[in-house]
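Limitations

Structures in this collection are predictions, not experimental determinations, and the ligand pose is part of the prediction. Treat each record accordingly. The example that follows, with 5-hydroxymethyl-3,4-dihydroxypiperidine as the small molecule, is included so readers can see exactly what is and is not provided: the inputs are given verbatim, and the output is the predicted complex.
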Amino acid sequence: MTFPEDFVWGAATASYQIEGATREDGRGQSIWDTFSRTAGKVIAGDTGDTACDHYHRYADDVRLMRSLNLGAYRFSVSWPRVQPSGSGPVNARGLDFYDRLVDELLKADISPYLTLYHWDLPQPLEDLGGWPHRDTAYRFAEYAQAVHDRLGDRVREWTTLNEPWVSAFLGYGSGVHAPGRTDADAAARAAHHLLLGHGLAAGALRAAGARGIMLVINSAPVMTRAQVLDPDAEVSAADATAIELTDALLTRQFLDPVLLGRYPEAAPAARHALDGDLEIISAPIDLVGVNYYNPCVVAAAPDAPADPAWPGLRGVAFHDLPGIPATAMGWPVVPHGLSRLLVRLSRAYPRTGLMVTENGAAFEDHVSGGRVHDEERLAYLREHIGAVADALEQGADVRGYLVWSLLDNFEWAEGYRRRFGIVHVDYATQERTPKDSALWYRDVIAGNRL
Ligand code: IFM
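Predicted complex:
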């Protein structure tokens, strides 16, 4: 299987998960600093205080990326490093770090894919109401403009938000992520204001000359158990309704307003839209980033209890998949879910290209004799990259694939116990060891083929 000549290959990370240096050079505090320091929120009390120490080791990390043939590196900017209080004057030393990182990437011939928001909201903005508060959207657009003012001459690819579903519904609905609120209405407000912030930022970036503007969502094909085993399995009318509703809340709640200028009827975020918001939210973008790990498996269940992470969902139960291999996160490994998703998104939104901006797996890894034989991850990546090739063959407009993640890192509420990296990190010494999957990926990139 070969890939288009200009297909982009790379890897992704996020600021709080790898940078460390949470109190250096004027950085302010984010909701994840507060959350991870709150007893009982993160496994083993882990925090991002040191993480992979990438803040100090970025030059070595870029050399490592180069040795793996990466053409693109997707990273996020820490908003509280740039604007410690979330608004007002920028902290030049915070921006200096990203300036150095971008220059280092460009020297190594690696395209920077910059994400403005990967979940680390400045704590002072949360104290003023966070994403459920409309003003946060305006603060986000100002911050986006400040980052563009400094880096817009060198960065070509701009992502506004990473996974707004997670920010809204795990942050303010189920509360398993920062800031840990459990209020379904606040979650729906947050979803709308994240989209508003996206639209305002996309408009500001474009006005400043940016192209390559992207929104990244966590998405999944919604399927029955039977469809996981046989993609062509028949679906009952009740299950079809359950699928449609779940999909409207997970994917269409975010992509319809951005790409079609309207919310699906079922979207609870829609209740918080004011006149004119949808025009702002549907500012043109250039690409949709898709983060895929596993399908969302559902069935109709009239008595299913309400789930705080899913306001608006009624009569649907989520199922696991006994008998299907799973990762250390317990996530089932279903590569054909990725081709199904890409083909479907490309058909539903034919004017916008797609990029797989995250895909990967956590497994138990062990260093032995300087090597990490991570056969399971390697197989996962091989099968999922194969699924991307299948999607391309079926006509999906997929422009690239970025593995999650370059490095083992702080996996949010799971702390450091889950390792997603293709490069192993020894957190005691900060030694990096490319796993077998990284060496295999390096060769896939070199050949542009599987
Ligand atoms: O680690 C996260 C990342 O920050 C966002 N997408 C999913 C990954 C794995 O859980």
